[in-house]
Amino acid sequence: MDCGILTSKTVLLFLSLVFWAAGGVLAYVASYMMRSFDSFGSFLQDKQTLIPAAIIIGISVVMFIFGLVGCCATLRESTGGLSCFFLIIMLIFAAEVAALVFSFIYQGKVSQGLELSMNGTFAKYNGSNAESQAVDLLQAELKCCGIKNYTSWFTIPWYLTNKTIPSSCCINKTAQCPSSQVQPNLIYTEGCEGKLEKILHDVLTYGMLVVLGFAIIKFFGMLSVCVITCRSNSRRSGYQAIYA
């Protein structure tokens, strides 16, 4: 068998297997992104930051089906099947590029709306409502206190009324923490905004790198389809088994 044909078929068969594996991986990445954003949804004003995750999970669904199409078309060297597979790869490649672009755009938007959203959520803190639960969870999980730092609480209605910071700011809950006398050595002093922003950026970056890796594989897959189609049309025999 022609070395170029054999190599291209091997690439496409490998790509078909990658479609199935990639479908599972991308579904996990998308669900991870959604869970991460959902955990801190109270602090995100722009819900469009979930668009990249929605695109990724859509891609993962069709990949399971297209992997089978690619495998059959490659083994049969079907011109129609390979053309269909090429179109499929190209569409998914375009969708992955779109996901990368959206991820890049919304990385900046996360930072823009985060401070305003956090100011609104922290201002509604009363110790028992939904916003309070979100703030307590955020501070306990990220080991932070306040928006910029623990002094951010000094201008928030909760502190002005109760003259104390929430217990979720305390490193360890003791008789001295929380108390009316704020002792920095007993509380988390770092602000939550910077830590949350870093987490959200890391999630988007992780998703972008995974999608970029699969996009590169798709690019070589399209090249392989072109090689097989061109070589097959130039041969006198229209069919040749892959293991011949």
UniProtKB/TrEMBL annotation:
Q: Where are the transmembrane segments?
A: 51-75, 82-106, 206-230
Gene3D superfamilies associated with the record: Tetraspanin
Keywords (alphabetical) are: Disulfide bond, Membrane, Transmembrane, Transmembrane helix
Q: Name one GO cellular component term.
A: plasma membrane
Q: Which cysteines are joined by disulfide bonds?
A: C145-C170
The protein's matches in InterPro entries, at most eight in alphabetical order, are given as: Tetraspanin/Peripherin, Tetraspanin_animals, Tetraspanin_EC2_sf
Q: What family does the database annotate?
A: Belongs to the tetraspanin (TM4SF) family.
Q: What is this protein called?
A: Tetraspanin
The protein's organism comes out as Iconisemion striatum
The opening ranks of the lineage are: Eukaryota, Metazoa, Chordata, Craniata, Vertebrata
Q: Which gene encodes it?
A: OLA.5421
